[in-house]
Amino acid sequence: MKISQNKLTRRNFLKTVAVTGAVFGSGFNPALRAFAASDKLPAVERGQWKPTTCQGCTSWCSKQAYVLDGRVIKVRGNPNSLVNGEASCPRAHLSLQQLYDPDRIKTPMKRTNPRKGKKEDPGFIPISWDEALNTIADKIMELRKKNETHKYMLMRGRYTYMRDIIYDRMTKIIGSPNNISHSAICAEAEKFGSYYTEGYWSYRQYDVVNTKYIILWGADPLAANRQVSYYLSIWGDVLDRAQVAVVDPRLSASATKADEWLPIMPGEDGALASAFAHIILTEGLWYKDFVGDFHPDSPIKKFETGRTIPEEFSTEIDGELVKEVSFQEKYTYGLIKWWNLELKDKTAQWAAKKTKLSAEQIRRVAIGYGKAAPQAICWVGGGPAMQVRGSYAAMAAHALNGLVGAVDNVGGTLVANKEYTQSFPGADNFLDNIAKKGKKHKKIDHRGRKEFPALKKGKPGSAVVTNNAAEGILNEDPNEISVAIAYMNNFAFSCPQTERWERALAKIPFLVHITTHAAEFTWFADIVLPSTHHMFEKWGYVKSHANGYLHVTLLQPVIDPVWDVRIDETEIPWLIAEKLAQRGFDNLIRHYKEYKDPETGKSPTNEKEFALYSLKYATHKLWDPAEYKGGDKFSGWEDFRAKGVWNSGPYPYRKRWGKMKTKTKKFEFYSETLKNALAKHAEKHNTNIDDIMTTCNYQARGEVAFIPHYEQPYTRGSAAEYPLLLVDYKSRLNREGRSANCLLYQELKDLDPGDEKRDDVAKINPVDARKLGIKTADKIKLISPTGELTCTAKLWEGTRPGTVAKCYGQGHWAYGKVAAGEFGKVSRGGNNNDIIPADYDRLSGSSAFYGLTRVKIVRLL
Amino acid sequence: MKKLQGSSPQGQNELKKKITRRGLLKLSAWGVAALSMAKVAEGVSVAEKSLTAKRKRLAMVIDLQRCMGCGACIITCKNENNVQDGFTWADKISKTVGKFPNVRYEYLPTLCNHCEKAPCVEVCPTGAMHKGDGDITMHNPKVCIGCKTCIAACPYGVISFNKKKPYKFWKSDEPLIKGATSSPREVVQKVKATAIPYYNPDREATLAGAGTRYKGIVEKCTLCDHRVKNGKLPYCVQRCPAKARIFGDLNAPNSAVNRILGKYRSFRLKEHLGTKPKVYYVRSLNPGTYQGTRGSV
Question: Is the ipTM of this complex over 0.90?
């Protein structure tokens, strides 16, 4: 029999079938039958694109998942979103390997080894949901019986806006003050910059399509956070219209495409920002329509280096001597104070010494930026902000947006558009006396103490100090934590100085982890509950903004869950509430039954209904035409669900000018808002603001504490012993810290400039490497004053001399077979948080990651 | 079918007789693959008829200014074509050049160049590498004998050889935590997939063995011919978030590729070899400006 590919005909094919008949059995492949019938090539993409949301980073893009025969095969951006459209960054696609990861936990587990520690194998064995939930409910009831509900703790990691069900309401009704979020290891200090200048505590959006100049401050939008998909989609055009300058000690993804790379010394961002402001003012480039100008009669009409400007001058009007302000500000406040207190001597030459950049480049960028006003963006990322004294650097860099009138303006920095989601019903009526008493205890993270002002939105003690909760647990300060539930977090990996968390978690007598994978955190758990994958198996919603719009996008179960998993933020708290009710405490389930389906008015009767009704409740005003308030309009829930995303109206430019949520309603270069917040904090501790500054490790004294200003970086380790500064950054393939177990992550790690496939490299400038005798591919230890890690050395010209650049993401010793060197035993590469000391920007409560520690390198033989 | 014969390299029939038996043996062992192969045979013929009414020369332009070096093309290609770990049909060449602080990063997305004078086609002894519709350099895995001559001949290193049984990762029976996590094989079975859990059956429309690749054959980019023949763009083109990849027919004067190639000076990889690649690059990855200068003495 002759069969060649050329001559393979239907007849020959049938012969072939005879040979291989057994394989086919009686059934013919339906696809082939269809094909034979129509005599056409089988159609592609016969499945359905179903809407959902990606939370691989906090871009929170609306997505569509391509589903065929109950399997997710591909993902893309949801074209219905005006924020991200069809564009999709690379990390989104890794979600498939997370969903179908064999190392996902498919059933609840319990620990069989009573000893806890990094070196103790927990001896997890599978148990039923019933057993797991009964155990959890029993432990909570024990606390309640002993009036010790304050010893209960809830830790939150990746969340949707369904969070309050488990994070807020459940914790309150059980009776504990201890709901601790991950926010302070994200970028809270970044929000500090915009809040204490323009009264906005959140991430900004950037009008890049209309801008002429962009300065990226430690932000890398082409790789990581925020709205990466959107910025990838537009950047090629942005480069035609705008100059892009990148302030970053290493050649970031965004720096590879920029006009200017400013490889600054870590921690010196504030110096650069002050010099930019100095140059913009001395060159007369501030935006007069926003900032105003000198009084026409003022004897001084320009900013000159080193010269103090009196705030007022005397002039004669109708024969009378009157005081007039030297500078008539329009929508800003405190420019002259800022100049006198901080800026007047901060020349390019001064900053050049601090930053190790050339004065020429500093001037060039400052003037370019100033000339582009008001279409000139300072994009302040975590880099300058997440430092020990980062609050002021964040203010300094963000204040430039005020100086050039970019705030709320075309081609500038924008805030979130208005949206109409609603909060869940309040918990107050369901708090019994035990809960009320328990809730009054102080929080485990020490926020609000003298050394932790944590001034979120002007209120002392209102921001979380995530990483300090480990100290609270370890020292039983203010009390012991005896029952803790945590979801989708991994503090033993994601918080600096990880070993503190290892000890803290080992100390908690009963720890529950809700997670998709057996992470480092899980290692210390007594009960493990398997969570749905947020993108494909969960109900929820998130809000996000870019491109002049805000979207509210739904997370939807586009397939049946692969394993026996439950939704972390809705189904699991409901199931716990049921178990508590069985034990005579029904307050929580009675509260949850208030989350009624807006369409039918029905109360939920099980966890699945609860997950859906609570979502419909929260988004009611978006999808119910009778409740319509603005933005996209839908005919009802099903219509909203099918499109998957609600878009706000377009951005109302300049509407906030003169109406900012600061004390003065203006953009504050002298922050009365911060002054007020600091005064409140000082008063609470019967002291003065200078004492607070000293206690919290800031250099500012007197009025300098209220203005954006330069503070010397606070660095751990001596230069003699630890010659290099660590530069930590994020991978374009990181799905937070959760994608290292994906094959694609390892295979394509070299998509991060300078990185290598399947490896974890510390990148050292060849100049330093020569001095240290280090070569590419050497196995090395990075040692800081607080820890060490093992990785591979790489010589790279994209690293500033004097620093070592290393990406965050590798270094797992748990999580899965691919992520770990040897699961439970050996890490794959090294986790940067093993060498970053636990320290804080105390005004915002943020953990410091950058400009913080020096390291030494030891070559392993 | 006729068209395919016409476009196959000459003098192959002799060799093909040899591989017939081999192919048949594989058919017995790989019934599913056999089914797919039949689809190729008939599917191609139909598509050929419709596409060859007007001869096309399909090409890609990659706009490096729009390219963000993000690698979404590499990942989504693997996604669409069920490309296994360690293999890349779409790939990149990247390096950092210069001395600090005068440094730039170079990144060039790569894929099969679908050369007009394709060395792989010229040297293939069995006709497995052949010119398909639209001048796409196609590979027929059923005829491939895994001699790797194509790999040696290709100046671009875009052909991969299945030295081992494919999808090794997914064939493991070892769970991480006994009873609480699954083995890779168990996931594949649980979701009733072929080879990998997120297996895309579309690929079988024109490429036998796309999911059931086997040890001893080569594989490479086919410009997503299964999509193109269905009027859809190659998946890397469709999914590039930056619209950096532009696809079209060089023979159509007003196609987007011709518009862009008319506007910008382009380059192709190793043009001096005379392979006439059909992947073109325009503009610069680093379009940054600098302040005018005359330099100094």
Answer: yes
